[in-house]
Each structure stands twice: as C-alpha cells, then as structure tokens.
Design a protein that fits this description.
The chain is α/β, with parallel strands linked by helices. The protein folds into 2 domains: 1-85 and 139-205 and 301-393, 3-Layer(bba) Sandwich (FAD/NAD(P)-binding domain); 397-636, Aldolase class I (TIM Barrel, Alpha-Beta Barrel), CATH 3.20.20. It has 17 helices and 30 strands. Strands 1, 2, 8, 9, 10, 11, 17, 18, 19 and 20 form a 10-stranded mixed sheet that branches. It has an 8-stranded mixed sheet with strand order 5-6-4-13-14-15-12-16.
C-alpha cells in the first residue's frame, strides 16, 4: 500500500500530528502497536511549565507556546468529536516544607505564606509552611484527550493500523523505502518516527524508557464538594483532581527499562508523600493503579524535526512533557513537512546534538545489515550495535551536569614523554573528557607547551583542573581562569572544573575542608564541580548536598600506582551517591580499572598509569577496554561467591 505520510507510533503525538497533516490535505496512515501501552495513558495531563520550573531557553519557549495553544486546540477537538477533553485552567499550587524554598520567585508565581496557603487550600498537611501559586498552569484529562484524538483522526479519514508491529525499516540509496510490519511491507512518500520509549528498537537514537508508577483515588460520595480544585505539585509528588471525582497521584521515576507492573515500594512512596501533603487522602478508596514508560533522552529534551534521511522526520523523546508539547509538536512537524519550513526552535532539538564524534552531517547510523531485494533492513540487534563509536546502550550513557558521554574513561595530559605521545594516547583511550592543569597551560610548563592546539577541542570536552592550588581561595581563582580558557578554545558553555585543593606536598592528599569551601563557592558561581577527595563517604555526601556534579574519590595516593587501597570506602560512596562517582588516582593497571568499574563506579580518571607506561598509547587502549569490560560486568551482575563447588553441567539426563 502507498500513502503520502506514514506515522510509526500510536500515541498522542502521532495522532495529533496525523490530524494536523490530514487537515492540510495529506493522506495519512498511522501504525500503532498498542495504543493503550503508549505513555499517553500513563500520564496525569499536567500542563505546567511554570510549576515544573522549566528553565529559560528553547525548551521553556516550546512549552509556553504549546500551553498557549491548548484552549483553542482542545475546544476544536471537542466540537469535532463531542468528547470532553477535561481541559481545566485550574492553576498549580506548590506547597513547601522548608523556608529556603521561598527564594525561588519568578514573574509567573506568587508566594503564599502559612496563613494564606492554608486558607486558600484547606486540608494541607501541618508541615506546609507556605507555597507558590502558578495561575497560568493547567491540566487536561490525558485519557479523554487520547480518545478524542483517536475519534477525530478516524472521522477525518486517517487510516489507523492498530495492533500492527513494525519490525524493521527499509533503506535504499539514502532514503526510507518502507517499513516491515507484522501485516507486511508498508510504504509512503514520507515517514514520521513517533515511537516514544520504544524508539531505540527501530532507530539508534538515545531514547530509553523511564518507568513511572501512578494510582488514582476516588473522592467519597458523602463529600458534596470536591476537596481540591487545583493541582498540588509537591516534593516528589503531584496530586491532580479531576471533575469526575478522581484524584490522580504520581509518579515514580525509575530507570528499570521495560520492567512492568506496580510495586509495593513504588505505590507506598507515592501514598506516603501524598498523605503528607494532603492528609485526608488516607481515607479515600483506591480506584486504580498503573504504570507507563516515559521516552527519556540524555538531556531530557525531545528529538524533533529532520533526520539523516530526507523523507524521515523525528517526533520522539518528549520525556515528562509529551502531553504538554503535543499541540506544538504536531504544528511544527506538519509545517516542516508540508511547507518545507523549519521553525528556529527546532534547531535546539535536532538529533545531531548527540553526535559527539562526527564533523559532517553524515548519518551516525553506520552498521552491518541484511540485504533483501536491494533494501537494507535494520533489525533490533543491528540498531543496538550501530551507535557511533560506542558499544554502550543509549540508556547507559555517562551523564554529568546535563551532558552525556559514551566513554567512561577520562584521561590527563601530564607526565608524557612528548606531546605526540600524549596525542596518540588520548586517541587510543577513546576518552571524551580530558583534564588539563590550568596553571601549567597558563605558564607553558614543561610538557604543556602548545597543549591548547594539540587536541581537537571540537571532539573532546575539556575538564580544567585546579592542580597546584593549596587553598580554597586559590582554587576558586584558578577555576575562573579555567572557564575562560575553555571559552577561548570554543567551548562557550563549558562550566566544568575538576577541583583540587592539595596543601600536602609529600603525599598529595586533598584538603577536605578547603575542598568543601571551594566547592560551595564555585557551585554558587554556576560551575559544574568535580571534586577530587579522599575516599570519605561523609565528605562525598556533603559535596553532593552543596551541588557538586560528581564526587571523585582516590583509590590510592596520586601517581602511586598502588591500585584500589580504599575499596571499602569507595563502595560506601557508590552505594549512597546520587551523582556519578569517578574513581581518581592510584589506578596502575587495567585489571584495577576493571575492578573499580565492577564495583559500580560510574567512570575513571587515569593519567600516570598511561603516561608512565613503556608504551603509553597501548596502555591507553588497554584502560579503555578495561573500563568497558568492568562496566559491562557490573551491569551483567556477577555470579554469587560460594563456599563449595557447584557443577557447571547438570547431572540429570547423563548416561550411566
């Protein structure tokens, strides 16, 4: 069959885009594996860029534009279908338990003190000391909206292939020529990929599922009035009232892949937080529990617009904001296809932002392929192997301060015998982050002459470090110089700094008090701070609390090559940290690097073990392989250690 446009995906984004295109005269087919499984049905329908504190920039602009479309957009849908979408400009109330949260005012909110907020919304928990009122935020009944969109699409003549699974995409001569489905091959002039959390099953984009559990309560019949007339957006909880007496409570955020079902711990945490915020909920009957999968990306922004193929458009990765962004996504995608015009906003959501190692616009999706009738069929396995320059899955990217990296090995630039050896070693390590001693570059210290020109800073993220600083004040000054140095090298948005405060000239052990003081100041100045510390779990926790982007405990004294001497403390840090843990200093051999990663470290920083090896580039490659092997082993989960033997082959069914 042939169609002007074929949309892969049956969720709210796909249906809204199909309707917009159909209204413009396009012939549209939607392929839906299971409409009920889409993230749409698992959401709460919040339209809240203000309450969710989406920061100024392209994402906020996109969200505000979409929210402004909602009143007219839903009104037209209701007129067309007769289905009430539940759009409700109810406003959002964000109660707080701590007075420090009072300092977050903006032009879109109003602070309500203790007396005012408890008068404004009766029934709030006694711990609520005040809160913010966001009058412009709204909600929609996401399930009703989904029904309205499906009804509208069908009434307009959009062909919907329900319960139809797409197994592969056919590519020939740089064009999409069709899709292989459970109902046969389907083709069109143009294709839209709107597959949400399942995107990576068909195309190597860094979109992965983030599970959310939810439940609903019902307002008891003996209450004649609804106890809530606005959304409560609290600490790790939101409570969304509906006109039909349902109260939606959500949602957990779990990086567990497509693991199904509700869990006792997930539901318990939601109920505890909800009852703390609005205690009378404890007596309301539970009506329903469910779960769903948000389509997350490493930077939590959607992937919209053009793809490597001229007749394929992306509309995926909306994460928490799929419902909110539906009208604007449909509008922008339809404009780009029918008018061949691209809104300037789409540039900020282009897929190429995840291509760290490509200079050109050549597709990053090079892969081995099966050939059938001249077409390339991309299978699920091939898709996973096709991630450029990386053997990691998209859901296992290293994420630091909003930036994503495929390599979990960081290297340094000191102690090499020549600048050429350093260049080759960095290349062989496969690293994407290289630490540079700001003072040594500034002074052209031996081994650092011309370092700024020696590496391709378009491919490598510079991590300026404050090596040589003995006090917190000194480290803060050097960190500022490092940020300016990164800007001079073209990394305008680089706010990273590896913080080292080392007054001890003999053992080079970091000063915990000075490190914490410097970290607090640098975080206030907007730095992403990566502090080098002793393997002190309490200090690591304090640094995380002040806002550091990682913690970097030493395995052994710097440059000693002693291996992991602080394993017990590093293990405690790993277990408790909510930020990446980077093992830094003391690693001497690849086996030790692998061991650190097997423990659950998020990354390694290795310099001396590479630079001082007889063959530094070869050792760099070995460390790269060790880091990868260790990470895979950690994710795989080692077998349990036993005190007794256990036969590898079963004894049943053997010949006697």
């Amino acid at each position: 069959m042939a169609s002007d446009i074929l949309i892969i995906g049956g969720g709210i984004i796909a249906l809204a885009t199909a309707i917009e295109l159909k209204i413009r005269g396009c012939n549209v087919t939607v392929i839906s594996r299971d409409n009920k499984a889409a993230a749409t049905t698992a959401a709460a329908g919040m339209l809240a860029p203000d309450a969710e504190k989406i920061l100024p920039g392209a994402m906020r602009d996109l969200c505000l534009r979409s929210r402004s479309l909602y009143p007219e957009w839903t009104s037209k849908l209701e007129q067309l279908t007769g289905i009430n979408t539940g759009y409700w400009a109810c406003g959002f109330l964000t109660p707080v338990y701590d007075v420090k949260d009072k300092n977050e005012q903006d032009n879109h909110s109003y602070w309500l003190d203790f007396q005012t907020i408890h008068q404004y919304q009766q029934g709030l928990g006694e711990e609520v000391i005040g809160g913010w009122w966001y009058p412009e935020d709204a909600q929609v009944d996401n399930r009703a909206l989904s029904r309205a969109l499906l009804t509208a699409a069908q009434s307009l003549g959009v062909e919907i292939k329900e319960n139809c699974r797409v197994n592969g995409i056919l590519i020939s001569a740089g064009q999409i020529t069709g899709v292989q489905t459970s109902a046969g091959v389907m083709s069109a002039e143009h294709y839209i990929l709107a597959t949400g959390a399942w995107t990576n099953e068909l195309f190597p984009l860094p979109v992965y599922p983030r599970k959310g559990q939810m439940l609903s309560l019902r307002v008891p019949d003996f209450l004649t009035e609804l106890p809530l007339n606005r959304v409560l957006y609290g600490e790790e909880i939101y409570i969304v009232p509906r006109h039909d007496r349902r109260i939606i409570i959500g949602a957990t955020s779990e990086d567990v892949g497509f693991t199904p079902y509700n869990t006792p711990s997930g539901i318990q945490s939601l109920l505890q937080n909800a009852i703390r915020l609005f205690p009378q909920l404890k007596d309301y009957p539970i009506e329903e529990m469910w779960w769903g999968y948000r389509p997350a990306t490493p930077d939590e922004l959607p992937i919209l617009g053009e793809s490597p193929y001229s007749n394929l458009t992306f509309a995926t990765g909306h994460y928490r904001n799929g419902i909110l962004l539906t009208p604007i996504t449909a509008l922008l995608i339809a404009d780009s296809i029918t008018q061949h015009s691209s809104d300037a906003l789409l540039e900020h959501f282009h897929y190429s932002r995840f291509q760290k190692n490509e200079k050109s616009s050549t597709p990053m999706f090079t892969h081995s392929a099966n050939f059938s009738n001249g077409n390339i069929v991309k299978s699920n396995i091939e898709t996973r192997l096709s991630l450029s320059n990386s053997s990691v899955a998209p859901s296992d990217l290293l994420q630091i301060a909003g930036k994503s990296f495929t390599s979990r090995l960081m290297t340094g630039t000191g102690k090499y015998r020549s600048i050429e050896e350093m260049q080759k070693s960095v290349e062989m390590s496969g690293c994407q982050i290289v630490t540079v001693a700001v003072r040594r570059v500034q002074t052209n210290a031996p081994g650092h002459e011309g370092l700024a020109e020696a590496l391709d800073w378009g491919k490598i993220w510079m991590l300026p470090n404050t090596a040589g600083c003995k006090t917190a004040e000194e480290a803060v000054r050097v960190a500022r110089l490092g940020r300016e140095m990164a800007k001079l090298l073209g990394q305008e948005d680089n706010n990273f700094v590896k913080l080292e405060v080392i007054p001890d000239a003999k053992y080079l052990l970091p000063d915990p008090i000075g490190t914490l003081q410097a970290a607090e100041q640098l975080v206030k100045e907007g730095f992403a701070v990566l502090p080098y510390i002793n393997a002190d779990p309490i200090l690591a926790q304090r640094l995380e609390e002040v806002g550091c982007a990682t913690v970097m405990p030493l395995a052994a004294p710097i440059g000693s090559g002693q291996g992991i001497q602080t394993a017990a403390n590093i293990q405690i840090i790993i277990e408790n940290a909510k930020v990446p843990v980077v093992v830094d200093a003391g690693i001497g051999a690849p086996s030790e690097a692998a061991k650190a990663m097997e423990m659950g470290a998020d990354a390694l920083l290795i310099n001396s073990a590479i630079a001082l090896a007889r063959n530094a580039p070869a050792m760099a490659q070995a460390m790269n392989l060790a880091a990868t092997a260790g990470r895979l082993a950690y994710l795989a989960g080692r077998m349990p250690i036993k005190d007794y033997a256990s036969a590898s082959s079963p004894l049943t069914g053997t010949i006697n």
